[in-house]
Specification:
Number of strands: 10
Largest sheet: 7 strands, mixed
Oligomer: single chain
Strand content: 35-45%
Order of helices and strands: EEEHEEEEEEE
Shape: globular
Low-confidence stretches: none
Structural class: mainly beta
Number of helices: 1
Helix content: under 10%
Distance between the termini: 30 Å
Radius of gyration: 15 Å
């Protein structure tokens, strides 16, 4: 962890059953709602993620943490005990996306936009005025 161990965590979070608990000591990106097909299948609809540097995340409990390689580019972390979806991590990257719903309130975050809207489900509409990207944040 790059921040001093004595520093207060910026945020804490975990799964439904407590088999995964984590803390983040660095900054968090505002939340982005992802409408890609993988998020829809993993979460049952769009998924809301923040992001932090890997070096700023520490696990207080990880006995339930399991990783699934969901594509050539990324893997997803979930609790093998309660099934909670918790993380999305690009392979070889230096950040990790954290499901906003797994953060303990108050998070102090706001939703800043939508990605992969080209894959949005046909059963809902995006009803806000936030930016919408057809693909990911980079494209």
């Amino acid at each position: 962890m790059s921040t001093e161990d004595t520093a207060e965590p910026r945020a804490c979070g975990g799964c439904l059953c407590g088999a995964v608990r984590y803390e983040i000591r660095g900054s968090l990106r505002d939340v982005v709602a992802c409408h890609c097909g993988q998020c829809q299948r993993t979460h049952g609809g769009p998924a809301s993620y923040s992001s932090a540097a890997k070096s700023e995340i520490a696990f207080n409990q990880d006995r339930g943490l399991t990783w699934y390689r969901s594509s050539q580019k990324a893997r997803r972390g979930f609790c093998s005990q309660c099934g909670a979806s918790l993380f999305w991590e690009p392979i070889g990257g230096d950040s990790i996306s954290v499901t906003a719903g797994s953060l303990d309130p108050p998070s102090g975050l706001a939703t800043s936009g939508h990605i992969f809207v080209c894959d949005k489900g046909d059963y809902y509409e995006i009803a806000d005025d936030l930016p919408q990207r057809p693909r990911g944040l980079a494209g």
